[in-house]
Amino acid sequence: GQQLNQSPQSMFIQEGEDVSMNCTSSSIFNTWLWYKQDPGEGPVLLIALYKAGELTSNGRLTAQFGITRKDSFLNISASIPSDVGIYFCAGSIAGSYQLTFGKGTKLSVIP
Amino acid sequence: SAVISQKPSRDICQRGTSLTIQCQVDSQVTMMFWYRQQPGQSLTLIATANQGSEATYESGFVIDKFPISRPNLTFSTLTVSNMSPEDSSIYLCSVVGQGARTYEQYFGPGTRLTVT
Question: Which of A5, A64, A87, B56 would bridge B48 by S-S if both were Cys, CB 3.0 to 4.6 A apart?
């Protein structure tokens, strides 16, 4: 089956810094999704990407669908304490509703 | 997006018992899924809950252990049967979006299960 490699596994950053994380796959995906999960809660969808090369923003968050269709990137600008949490990438192949998830990036923000 | 609720939010159960988790959506949805998230891990798809027919299970998950019902387009249940400590996880239901958002999934708050 498909596998997603998400990196880094964890990050410690100072408040105000920018953050970058990425996911790579051995398979071509048609959809890339980025989620944030806070402790004790379900994942919340941040950004959805549907086209190779697509760049989409949601506030301070920007995500890109890689041109090879095998990777995606998420950037967070000017981090704040509430950005703390675990960020997951997820992808689906053509014609499928099933998602494959990355292992997550745990973000810690130092005030 | 749809509002999804799960019951119970958490439970502590003894080994050998069973727990049924409910997932309720505030609007009709075509597809619902059940996931397991083991402590500190990512999400793993258990099965697709099909309305009016048997659920479709992923490799490594079987109906006898995780029976699923979906009697209508707004409700589904997942039962964790004959529990062992290894079943301690967060169980999440998700639904697909509507229209152009069909390939997006939205998650419930999860059920945190501890088996002693």
Answer: B56
Contact residues for B36 (Cβ-Cβ < 8 A; gap 6+)? B43, B44, B46, B89, B90, B91, B92
Determine the residue type at B35.
Answer: Y
Q: In this structure, are residues A13 and A20 in contact, taking their beta carbons and an 8 Å threshold?
A: no
CA B1 to chain centre: 18
Among A residues 5-44, those touching chain B with beta carbons less than 8 Å apart: 30-31, 33, 35, 40-44
For the stretch A10-62, pLDDT in tens is 999 999 999 999 999 999 999 999 999 999 999 999 999 999 999 999 999 99
Q: 3-state DSSP call for residue A44?
A: strand
pLDDT at A1: 59
Residue in A99, A100, A106 to test binding to B, most B beta-carbons within 10 Å: A99
Which amino acid, B29? V
Residue type, B31: M
The verdict on B1 touching A (C-beta cutoff 8 Å) is: yes
What does the pLDDT look like over B34-61, one tens digit per residue? 999 999 999 999 999 998 889 999 999 9
Cis peptide before A8 (omega within 30 of 0): yes
